[in-house]
Amino acid sequence: AAVPPVAETTTRTTCPYCGVGCGVIARVAADGAVSVAGDPDHPANFGRLCSKGSALADTLSLDDRLLDPKIAGATASWDEALDLVARRFAETIAEHGPDAVAIYGSGQFLTEDYYVANKLMKGFIGSGNIDTNSRLCMASSVAGHKRAFGSDTVPGTYRDLEEADLVVLVGSNLAWCHPVVFQRLVVEKERRPSLKVVTIDPRRTATTELADLHLAIAPGGDVALFNGLLLHLLQEGVIDSAFVADHTRGLTDTLAAASGGAGTLAVDTGLDPAEIAAFYALFAATEKVVTVYSQGVNQSVTGTDKVNAIINCHLLTGRIGRPGMGPFSITGQPNAMGGREVGGLANQLAAHMDIDSAADRDRVARFWNTARVTDRAGLKAVDLFTAVADGRVKAIWIAATNPVDSLPDADLVRRALETCPFVVISEVMAATDATPYADVLLPAAGWGEKDGTVTNSERRISRQRAFLPTPGRTMPDWWIFAEVGRRMGYDAAFSYASAGDVFREHAALSGFENEGSRDFDISGLADVDTAAFDNLAPVQWPVRRGDRSDGEGDDQRFFADGRFFTPDGRARFVPTPVLPLQIDASRPMVLNTGRVRDQWHTMTRTGKAARLTSHIAEPFAEIHPEDAARLGVTPAGLVRIASRHGAAVVRALVTDRQRRGSVFVPMHWTGQNSSSGRIDAVVAPAVDPVSGQPGLKATGVDVIPFAAS
Ligand code: SF4
């Protein structure tokens, strides 16, 4: 038998895809071949990986990588590129003020990348104009958490799904989008069939196959459904009166708002009253309930209200923060949570501090030793690119994301970059739909090549570790931001030697004058030395000074004691009136966008793995047979999906999995890998007024057979 190659290195790291945050063991053999396996000791996945995670080794080729800095398309040195970026940013600020520049980053950043970028923009440039594609991911959950809890705190842990007697999945195709958490749920349901699962989703999906009850809700019906549940719970006496009296405020107004929609529940939800009654009875009768929600809730112009309508039901019943109970936002991106920790959104300050609070700004300013901390929120993603388009923002730096394909009204983003006087793009890939508009391209290190931390949906911080050398002249994103900061004159504030240096500063800031008064505190990790950082085991926050930090057996929950992070320590019920679906009514179909099982974002990595692209090879439009017949759409025929913003042409997938009146199109395909399937060019740029998150799941569109268009 052939002797297997001797593995030269074995490295524990974390999957770079979804918010589950699975531990990965990467092996580099003597011949350089890389293989990956699930880390059996990682508490998110216990050795499991999904199809995307299992194929990570197939995505590491250097084909198509950006390996050198480029200025106007020509190879440049790092010094030339960084000097130019620093000079143009400084000139723009001098001439037009700090709000004339902006950074648009990514939930793909490691926490250290996020931290340095935010420090540069909010602490030294003095503008809030740094936002990220996490705005598209979970901004509504952040806003909903803050309204209800006074802090952006996910109360529970993945283990709660296994300890619950009822798991309600709202707007979540968990089987495809968070597959390892789904696998944990499947295993538990097989072991304990009394565990019930309810799915609330306009579509029948791989997730709904697990459900005891599937509510194929109408687009935008979630607030009405949970308002109705709140009234039902009250009517049935399923209320934790002591918890409500001692630990909450706002129930009366919230009930009044909910009562306003009571007469139109079936119409607003599009559901059979018997199905609604079955769900309400199950929820009422089951103490241990976890309500998991994801992009079907967040990516809506009423997303924040949807989040609060769900949380309201858990507050009324006191089902929060205890094993097997609680509302649970699962993030789409690998480090959306880490970004929130460092203030990665335009309306946040570092370490869960508030940009609107003079005391918080002062605290950050003293810690960073700067007098330039911005005193107001910056532009959120959609508004940011509108400001680029209309000339208010004159220099933009895009890093680790491609807004030309992923933001709504994507053609407007393209036009904005065409006209912007100075565009910098930090990229792993040599060519995306955005790179042609870059004045400066900066080559970034990718997964497997850089060090740092990420935080998953259950607040668990895990290390990403390098197991490959950085190719060409690529560098980590934190280093690139820091070098520009130094060249802009802030040398002392940005003189980091390693990701560990950044992490220690981030951890120290979280505990600076904090004294346990906030949810996010990892000051117990502020003194980790290089070896301890290298060996850091996955650990859930908070890790306050004096806490254990080995991460073992630490399924920590918030709010079991009824203490919240509002000024009076009480949670808030939030009134969530039912609003009509806000779409272009002149176009009769509702476009819903989302993911497929084996692709990630714009396919720059997953598109390299043949075993992933073989799952679904091209974009498609899921449409109900009755709609197809009415519109003259034939199975596998081409259809044109058009809004007033743009159009895409994809193949029709006629299926009764899709709700009548809606059409689903995946969001992965771009101008690089599909001639006509760039669906975000079609999506309307309407946003939730509280969170600024775009409503990516409800755009009014026409669906027309392509041959007839
Ligand atoms: Fe990666 Fe998410 Fe799959 Fe885990 S579930 S392997 S984090 S994509």
From TrEMBL:
Requisite cofactors: Mo-bis(molybdopterin guanine dinucleotide); [4Fe-4S] cluster
Identification of the protein by name: Nitrate reductase
Shown residues within the full chain: 11 to 719 of 903
Gene behind this protein: nasA
Gene Ontology annotations of biological process type: cellular respiration; nitrate assimilation
Keyword 4Fe-4S annotated: yes
GO cellular component: membrane; oxidoreductase complex
Keywords annotated in UniProt: 4Fe-4S, Iron, Iron-sulfur, Metal-binding, Molybdenum, Nitrate assimilation, Oxidoreductase
EC top class, as a word: oxidoreductase
Molecular function as annotated in GO: 4 iron, 4 sulfur cluster binding; metal ion binding; molybdopterin cofactor binding; oxidoreductase activity
Organism: Methylobrevis pamukkalensis
EC numbers on record: 1.7.99.4
Entry's family note: Belongs to the prokaryotic molybdopterin-containing oxidoreductase family. NasA/NapA/NarB subfamily.
